[in-house]
Design brief:
alpha/beta; Rossmann fold
Amino acid sequence: MRRQRLSEREVECAGTMTRLIEVGRGDGPPLVLLHGVLSNGASWAHVIPRLAARRRVAAPDMPLHGKTLTPPTFDMGPQGMAGWVGALMDAMGAPVADLCGLSMGGAVAADFAARHPARVRRLVLVDAANIVPLADPYQAMLDMVLSKIRLATSADPTELAIDHDSDPIIAGMLVYVKAQGIPLEQLAAGLGLLEPMGREGLSRIAAPTLAIWGSEDPYFPARPAAEALRGGLQQGRVEVLKGVGHNPVDEAPEEFLRLVGGFLDA
């Protein structure tokens, strides 16, 4: 396979300076890859070459991630992130695109497709974070984080984590937020991306949709997710990968590429 030339640039999108990796060429709609939480666009590097064989592929660092510069006033909630996706597509000169999102990126992609159905040709959701509620005990941990955010409105989140949190994940999250200078209100808005869309929200997605799910996803269980997707999507296909966890892109890249390549080329 001929090696694809990779380019990297920064584009202004909805008040952010978004770092964007682009590979490939094509006359059709580009494929935009949206990564998961605490990751970046480079996390798609091992699958981009084959995805870009027939199309232009773009992998941005999402707001608050990677090298993207995000102002403290940026809305990390569903509406703000949908505005960012639309602005990114505008900056790319793409009135229509194919979207593929993993976890948090899947939540952003699904929500955008529901809000702006005319701008999405095909949609790929990989263990998307807004289809079913977060499983316990992770939901309990998230509730604890939210309670700490409310308590920390006028406190030092580092001290709050050390003094009140025995769970290292929660403590680490709050310390990370402090170190990165992320306003707690912005973090709380971002957690709104985890709110399940429900049947009515999914029904607003007009694009043909491929959902890829790991059967062993501990955060968003595969069985209820598949039921919700099949019951809500207008044109949906669900593929559950046996023995795979929350990240099929990394855990089963060959199967991911086979499914996505066939779906986008259909």
